[in-house]
Prior knowledge:
alpha/beta; Rossmann fold; eight-stranded mixed β-sheet; globular
Amino acid sequence: MPAPLDEPLPSRKTLRDRLIAERERFASSDRATAAAATLARSLHEVLQQIEPELLGVYWSVRSEFNAALALQSDKSTQALPLALPFARRSPAQMEYRRWDGSTPRAVDECRIASSDGEVVVPDTVLVPCVGFTRDGYRLGYGGGFFDRWLALHPHVTTVGVAWSAQQIDTAEFHPEAHDQPLTLIVTEDGVIG
Length: 193
């Protein structure tokens, strides 16, 4: 629900906390299994149209959609060359490392599973969203890792991945100078962008 005009916007932390709680509830609901299957189909269709040469995926945490698992379960995307992000805390930066699709053998400095492969720059990346707007902006976890990487690689096609319940009304979220818009966003309700 948008904030009334006379009330200030919620802080990003407040908005993030609310959206993560909503995502947790959704992921444990009766609708989640069917929604995951629908989102997986939509993601496959988008990737067939984009035809990435090297796809940057993410290792899902908590109640995020598991895009890596969805890709491995479909014959049309099983052969795609993949990469996983690897984040460093100081200085705060992220890179992608080639990944063979097996159980990750590395953990980055944010304690997320990653790859120990060579550093690469994918032409297409899947980006997890805590929240998103219809005009292509995303709210992440607040570390700025994806935004910094995307700013350095503006030629990359960016595909946000989220549950539709994570959509933020534009009255609640205003992009800041560092926010990088996504090329498109895929949810179980379809493609935005």
